[in-house]
Every structure is written in structure tokens, then in C-alpha cells.
Amino acid sequence: MDIARLDLRKMWTPALLLIALALFATLPLYASRYLVILLTSIAMYVVLTGSWAIFSGPTGYISLAPAAFFGLGIYTSAVLGRTSPLPAVILVAGLASFLVALFVGALTLRLKGIYFAMFTFGLVELIKYFLLWYEVEFTGTRGRFVVVVDNTTIYYVMFIILATLLLTAYLIRRSRFGMALQSIGECEEAAAHIGVNVNLLKTVTFAISAIFIGMAGAIMATRWTYVDPYIAFNPLFSFMPVLMAIFGGIGRFGGPILGAVVFAYLEETLITRFPYYYMLLFGIVLIIAVVYLPNGLVGLAQILQKRISERRHAHTGR
Amino acid sequence: MTTVRILEIVIPGLLLGGLYALIAMGLSLQYGVARILNFSHGEFIMLGALTTWTLFTALGVNPFLALAMCGPAAFVIGFFIHRTLYKRLLISSPSPAVFESSSMLASFGLMFVIQNIALLAWGPEIRGYSYLSIPVNLGGALFGANRLVTLGVAIVIGMTFYLFISLTRTGKAIRAAAQDPAAAGLMGVNINSVLALCFGLGAGLASVAGMLISMCYPVHAVMGREYTIIAIIVVVLGGLGSIPGSFIGGFLLGLIGSIVTQIEPGLALVAYYAIFVLLLLIKPTGLMGK
Fold first, then answer.
1. What is the mean pLDDT of residues A300-313?
2. Partners of B138 in the beta sheet?
3. What is the pLDDT of residues B129-169, one digit of tens each?
4. Burial class of residue B51 (count of CB atoms within 10 Å of its CB; 0-12, 13-18, 19+)
5. Looking at residues A63-78, what average pLDDT do you find?
6. For the domain that residue A248 is a member of, what is the CATH number?
7. CATH number, residue B247
8. Do residue B109 and residue A286 have CB atoms under 8 angstroms apart?
């Protein structure tokens, strides 16, 4: 009976995905402008969190670099936006993030644990202050204006990025590649001994995860219209994905996505009215999640499910 | 280059370095012994600074008297946080590496909590007060008396602290815990108390540094992160877990900052991060690291 239920579930997941896909693709035709903007923001956080989880989820390396790639995307958009068509800008942003991440990854991924977190954190600040100095010194301005794109286009672009990301994440998880990543997270030395090219794998995965973050940055910049290094390289864009993924549950596929959706929605509704309370809540939830929910919301759901099914068994009288 | 010009570069570097050293020593205790890379370190600095500002402007309390109150209060808060939050994490973590990651993440949470409570209590305004800001002539170069006093206090506290760690019985327990917590526990060191003590001392040192900062610089509720980052850079520069290393690293970074500021003011922070990033790549154990 358990096997039958499992098969049914396997059928359900693609069907649900297709329905969701159709729903989201047609949404701007009938939904309000506010809903479109809200969903774009949520999708942005899902992209950030999901891409972070591609690399950091299985390997356990805590990367605080998302803000660097996000900012890189934003600046690609600011520099190329006037002269190039939007798809080109987005692709260049993705490519640039990929190359930078490849370089950074090759240099730093031999740093273990906490050193890697510190390095990536320092990297964001280094880029930010260098860019600030460069802009003031050589271009004579602090910020830049970005070409405006209408909200529906932004929505669709973000949606396509999100769909590609989810597909990539799914394929990676299912492949030999994903298995190897998982083995790195469990024991890196053992993984190396059984023939996994540890450094290459980590670097490539890190770079792949950066593509989506860079692309998301490029399209979000068109919504903000004005950017400066402080906005583009805000370390919050590094913290948020980490916190959202942990809140949702790093180990599972759906965890980071769930965490991002919940927090992005909370942010959109709370941040304009009670910004300090929102961030306070954020901190409290993070602490609770780290201390009491090591597997996040998804882990909690599993525990509850298990309890319920146990109770059911008890009632049938074993 | 004249002597005055050199003094004008070196002395501000030392003044800045003293503060950096003090900030970093606290973090060094928290990371080196308690294994918590505390991203909320700067928030304790901010709390110390804003409390001193409030006491001085509202009640006219002398900043040094405020120091005597803030330091112990922050110590108690830090001790309590370790006893509740981090001890729980320590028990539930399967390995030291897992504890390092999860305690770092919990400290992010703590950072948001403290920062936003401060924003609710004090608001985002930038504040400052004037205390002991009399110019002092040192070999032709002029410096504020408050900044010189800051350096003096930083050195005194640093020295006291070093002596405490190297001479007392508790200090010995701390050093043992830094080397191997499990073995220290087996030798009869009450390991939970020692770790909580270290975290509390780190918080206390941070709030003392905050009080000194409030005497010289403007303070506000979101100033913490900047100092957290500087503390992390200095701790890595000096060697994670080495108290003398943090002390030397602090002065070194202060001097570098001062020299770069003389050449190209916009690049001071860039220089800090460049040093940090290069150091992690070339010698992640730092100057005095094992």
C-alpha cells in the first residue's frame, strides 16, 4: 500500500507543476498590478534562495557571496542596459556571474567551513567599496540610472529565470553530479577517495548557482531604476537567502523554496509599515529555526506527519 | 617627510589601532575559545555606545562611570546568552564544525534582534556628544584628548586582560579550553562555565569599546556591522584565537588604515578588505596563528 501511495505522489508532482506553470504564465492577463509586483519579489527571493541551496545545501559550505553576484547583475544592467536589448543584458549578467564565481570558487573553495563564509562575506564588501571609490574617482558619480522596463516583462523574465533554476536544481539533484555533491557534504575526504573530483565539482556548482543570482540582479535593477554600490552590494542579499533556506529546511528540495516564499511574502507586507519589527521577527525566527528546527519547516512537517501516522496506527489497534 | 608629518600619520594609526585591538580581543575570545564567530559582536559595541550617550546626555553621567556600569551589564547579558542559546546548540551539534556553522547563523539572528531593538528604542538618528575634546600638542601635531585617553584605556584593558589570561587560574582554564575543550573538561575544568565566561567577557569588552567609540565618533543604531567586520578582519589578521595576535593585528590594521587614508582616503576600506581577502587565501592562520 505504501508503494502505491508513493507512485501516486510521483504522478502528482509533475501534474501540479504543470498546473502551476500555466497559472503563473497567464497571471498578468487577469491579476492586479500589485499581485504581479508582489509575485516578482517573491520569485526573486526564491531564485536567490534556490540558487544558494544548489551549492550550499548539499555541500554544507555557507556562502555569503550571493550579494556579490546579485550586485554584479545589477551593474551589468546599469552599464549595458541603454545600449543592449534586455535578453542580451540578462545573459551577459548570468555569464559574468558564472565567470566571476568560477574564478572565486577556484581560488577559495579549498578554504574550509567558516573561512569560506568569512571570505565570501569580505568579498562582497571589497567589491562594494572598490566600486564606490572607482565611481567617485573615474565616472564622477555615485549612482547610476537603469533603463526602466514594464512590470509585466520583469515578471515574465523573473519567472523564466525561476523555472530554469528549478529545472536545473532538479536535474542536479537527480544526477550523479548531485550524488557526488551530497557525498562532499557528508565527508569531503571520503568523497575524494572514492574518485570524486572534489575541487572541480565544488567550483562548477558554485559557478552554476551564481548564474541565476546574476540574472535576477540584472532584471531587478530595471525595477529600481536607480542603483549605487550600497544598494547593489547590500549584504542583506547574502544573509536573506541563507536565513530563508535554513528556515525552510536546507536538506530537502522544497525547503529553501518554501522558506523564501514565506519570508518574501512577510517582507512585502510588513517592511513598509513596520520595518524594524519585521527584521526583529526575522532574527527571532532565525534563532528559533537554528536552535529548534535543524531541518526547518519541511523537517517540522515531516515530524508532524510521522506523529499523525503513528497515531493512526495506534487507533487501528496493533 | 618631516617628523610632524610622520607623527600625523603614525599617531592616528595607533589611536585607531587601540580601538581595533580592543574590539578584536573580545571577538577573539568568543571565536578562539567558545568557537562562535559572533556576527552580533558589533551590536554589543553599539549598545555600549548608545547607552553611554544616553547616560551622558540625559543624566549627565560621566562616560567612565558609564563604563563601570555597561561593561558588567554586557558581561551578564553575554554570559546569559551563552548559557541559554549557545549551550543548547553545543549539546545538539554532532561535531565542532556543525557547531561553528550553526552558532554563526544564530549570531546572525542575534544581530538582527539586537539591532532592531536598538532601532526601536533609539531610532536611526546619528548622535554624538562632546567630552574631553581638548586639543593636545604632540611634537607639533594636534590630537583630541579624548582620542588619546581612548588609546590609554584600550592599552590598559588589553594588558590587564593579557595578564588575567596568562597568570590566573581562570585564565589557565580558558587557555586549556581554547586548545581542547573535551580534554579540558576531563581535567576538571567546568567547560560550560568557562565558555560562557569567555562569551560574556567578549560582550563586556565590546561594550567598553563602544563607550570609548562614543567619546570620539558619532554613534547610531546601525553602526554595529561596520565594527563587526573590522573585528573579524583583525582577528583573522592576528590569527584566530590568539589574544596577543588580535592586539598586534589591531594596531597593524590601524596603521595601515592611517597610511592609506593619507595617500587615497577613498581606498582605506578597500585596503582592509583586500588585506583580509589576500590573507585568507595565502595564510588563513594569520600572523600569530598555530
1. 79
2. B141
3. 777 767 777 666 667 777 888 888 888 988 888 888 889 98
4. buried
5. 92
6. 1.10.3470
7. 1.10.3470
8. yes
